[in-house]
Amino acid sequence: MSALLAGLEWFFLLYFVLINAGYIALNLLALPTLHRKIALRALEDLPPTYSGFEPPVSLLVPAYNEEATIASSVRSLLQLDYPEFEIVVVNDGSRDATLEALAKAFELEVFPEAHCRRLPAKAVRAIYHSRLHANLRVVDKENGGKADALNVGINASRFPLFCAMDADSILQRDSLRRVTQPFLDDPRTIASGGTVRIANGCTVSGGHLERVALPRNLLALVQIVEYLRAFLFGRLGWATLNAVLIISGAFGVFRKDTVVEAGGYRADTIGEDMELVVRLHRVLRSRRQPYSIHFVPDPICWTEAPEDLAVLKGQRIRWQRGLAESLHSNRGLVRTGGAAGLLAFPFFMVFECYGPLIEVAGYLFMAAMFLVGHISAAAFLAFLALAFSLGFLLSVSALLLEELAFHLYPRFSQMAALVGVALVENLGYRQLVTLWRLVGLTRWLRGARSTWGTMTRKGSWQR
Amino acid sequence: MRLWRLWRERTLAPRIEAWRQALHVAMDDPLAARLPPLATLDLPAFAGLWNHFQESVRGPASDNLARLLRERGIDARLLALLGRRSLRLRLTAITALGHLREERAWTKLEAIAREPSSVTSFAAARALLRIEPRRALQVLGPSILEREDWPLTRIGTILHELGPAVVTPALVTLLVSRPRRGLERAIKLARFGHRHRISTIVRGWLSSSEDPEVIVAALDYVEDASDLPWARGAAKHDSWRVRMAAAQALARVGSRQELAALLELLRDPVWWVRYHAAQALTSLHGLEGEELEALRAGTRDAFASDMLAQALAEMRRR
């Protein structure tokens, strides 16, 4: 019995060491990339010039019950600074007046378009063209979920690159130019995603970000640190190894032919954005086809974070299920080798997918060992202190990267608030999120059916 | 770190404002500009601002900005920056020396253009093209075609800025040599040269090449009826991209005689070929809307009929 307990102790300790070593390694990988990014501003900050070689982009906007905001979202997209793009809004069988709102705002008329059905998807009811904007089309289809709507959007799109986004993503005018840059610089690029930041507290006007500020809501504030950690050293670190496994569904650009050849979005998963990227890695690596998946660290897309626990809980449960589905349906990636197969995939499987299970079990185990007197109070407290300190250290390093590269929160009080939050989040918030993730994992294991996630947004900061 | 940044921002702000005013004045009259003495620490920030101004202006204003730097001896200080290790400093200096058209930097820039780093080598290539475009095109021609890490879009931007009079001779030389590596890039860049000079070379490839990419490029230059037999042949090519380009070429120079070939393409299995065949039919000389409607009504292929309906609707909107 004691040998088993000792074995478990060593297992949890090893897990703890490996996960933190992994995050520290990602941090170290991200640093030189970010340093180079700063140096390149000598060129990137110069006024943009276009040659006509910029690949035209189809912006795919899946909309489900977006009656209140869809017109302003589309108006903001029409103002993007990019030489050639089209907007394809896909009304995914909305039950409200989304289609009517679009028809009224953009003078839509039914157009006899010969629909190209390269990917299987639910039936298209009608395709509308705008009388006001030649680059705006609306596809009205039967409800089938976001992935199905994106597949319809891909079928309807006319350009070689498509940008998958959320209808309520808040962009900067240069967002599209920045996220497509890797396609110009590296001909092997098949996908590119950017940093998603939290818009709560910011000033947004006409669908564009005007002023960056921090939210008053503590939950939203904590998520700012969380997002910085995930994007600035998580994805940037993996990107240096060409092993990014997630491109946020809020804003990511893909090469259409590659996605179509891989089968498009899977409509039976809730993590369709991650599933597609993992599948692209698997398919292209198994074909031994050279490719790159890039990550642009610039803050190019802003999104509203949940401000109450119930909504946040639902979101995190969905994310965890999506993660588990994406990884398990592409297990073959491990056999294809490379950093994506041999490093990123196992890391995500062990630490991100099953991590909550091990972490919760670890906390309970350590607490039980302490209660039965198997470990001393000093050892138990030392373990907790170390766990909290490392968590804090990683958050602070993400803040440091933000300060080094972007400096979006210029006031001392803002940075002090974020450092404070980085400390506080270890005292309850992280543990709560781990529990929700465990719920998500359990639901996935039980095989609960995937459904569209509903995300309640307040949009109180929007003008 | 934050204190250092704040201190720099605070101390730099009034200087940047003074530089900005000086540069505005210098665009009209460099002698009248009051440029405060530049500390070594301020040189990169000033050069960055100067580059920004240069990228936004053309003609005499650009020349005047360059004159301001020379008269203050800043050109020599920028030359010294080329040897620094910092990527940011080097890129700033390379860009500025290009705008200055600084002949003394040629040898160093040529060496940097051969470095493996995509960023610095391309920045140096760009600077060389600004300093002496014709000579630079001769020197850099093979690299432009072979270095795939040099983005085509950026090369296109530079060639566009230089204009067809400057780039056509170099492009003709490259195209005539039909390089084994980089031909596709050469074809894509050909659009920045004088069309009539490029056209003669590229159209010749229609009869001599089997590479689909080359045929697609050549079809883009089909502009008179003498090329029609090639375009009709291309309409039956195995590659759908060639068939699509053939449809576009037939639309450009064909007449009603191409009706049969285009109706065949309208039944193509690939959506894009059908789309361009339908577009071609609506723009074909001598075919009127009523006749097209009759063609649509008469076709038994549902895909062809739908596509023609779309093209007709688009034609009516034009």
- Assign the structural class of chain A, choosing from mainly alpha, mainly beta, alpha/beta, alpha+beta, or little secondary structure: alpha/beta
The helix fraction of chain B, in percent, is over 70%
Helices and strands of chain A, in order, run as HEHEHEEEHEEHEEEHEHHEHHHHHH
How does the major sheet of chain A shape up? 10 strands, mixed
Coarse morphology of chain A: globular
Number of helices of chain B: 19
Total beta strand runs of chain A: 12
Total beta strands of chain B: 0
Tell me the Rg of chain A in angstroms. Answer: 23 Å
Q: What is the number of helical segments of chain A per DSSP (H or I, 4+ residues)?
A: 14
Shape of chain B: elongated
CATH class of the domain at 15-131 in chain B: Mainly Alpha
Strand order of the largest sheet of chain A: 3-4-5-2-1-6-11-8-12-7
CATH architecture title of the domain at 15-131 in chain B: Alpha Horseshoe
By CATH, the superfamily of the domain at 15-131 in chain B comes out as Leucine-rich Repeat Variant
Distance between the termini of chain B: 59 Å
Main attributes of the structure:
heterodimer; A: 463 residues; alpha/beta; ten-stranded mixed beta sheet; two-stranded antiparallel sheet; 14 helices; 12 strands; 16% strand; B: 318 residues; mainly alpha; Leucine-rich Repeat Variant
Describe the protein's architecture and organization.
- The complex is a heterodimer of chains A (463) and B (318).
- Chain A has 14 helices and twelve strands.
- Chain A has 463 residues and is of the alpha/beta class.
- In chain A, strand 4 and strand 5 (136-141) form a beta hairpin.
- Chain A has one domain (1-41, 169-455).
- The mean pLDDT of chain A is 90.
- The longest helix of chain A is centred in the first third of the chain and has 43 residues, at 2-44.
- In chain A, helix 9 crosses helix 10, helix 9 (309-328) packs across helix 14 (429-446) and helix 11 packs across helix 14 (429-446).
- With 318 residues, chain B is mostly helical.
- Among the domains of chain B are: 15-131, Alpha Horseshoe (Leucine-rich Repeat Variant), CATH 1.25.10; 227-318, Alpha Horseshoe (Leucine-rich Repeat Variant).
- Classes of the chains: A alpha/beta (463), B mainly alpha (318).
- The A-B interface holds A 36, 38-43, 45-47, 49-54, 111-116, 118, 129, 184-187, 400, 403-404, 407, 412, 415 and B 1-2, 5, 48, 51-52, 55-56, 86-88, 91-92, 95, 118-119, 123, 148-149, 151-157, 159-161, 188, 271, 274-275, 278, 303, 306-307, 309-310, 313, 317.
